[in-house]
Amino acid sequence: MKAPLEFLLAGYTIEKSTEVHLRDPKTGYVLVRSGDCDGALKHLRLFPSAEEMSRSTDAAWVSDLKFEAKPLPLETGRGISIGDRPEKIFREMGKPTWRGGSTYMPGDEVWSYHHRVGTPKQGVEYKALFRFRRGRVVAMELHSENYPS
Fold it and tell me: Would the N or C end of the chain have less CB density within 10 A of its end CB?
């Protein structure tokens, strides 16, 4: 049985708290794992560049990071890759919880998947976001948030 949501991106897990700032030397894609100081909120993002990640999310600080060069597999643990079409994401993940236009990048479409684990008083909400441009995945994000927060 598949996990209810995606936990791996470019070989890294959302479950860890250590910060990661990597750039794939071949493609220029960047991977950033970040979170808040108490570990209640975690992010793992894979974007074509730090500049695009800064423009496309609420993470303007990303453009100031120093990135370590390291080859990255541009895919999730389920095998969803940069460049894939929406049909593959639908096959692997099912119907998105939400889909619509990007707030930050006009013309991009975003599919968002949400899954809660735990009780209404204590648990974790996981989110996986896939950003499409011209019918292909161009960026992916994983988020986890402990609740209540």
Answer: N
Cβ 128 vs Cβ 112: under 8 Å:
yes
DSSP string, 89-130: HHHHH-S-SEEEE-SSSTT-EEEEEEEEEE-SSSEEEEEEEE
Q: Is the pTM of this model over 0.90?
A: no
Output phi, psi for 115, to 5 deg.
-150, 130
**Positive or negative CA dihedral for 120, 58, 19, 131?**
positive
pLDDT tens for residues 55-101? 876 666 777 789 999 999 999 988 999 999 999 999 999 999 999 99
Sketch the domain layout of the chain as residue ranges: 8-147
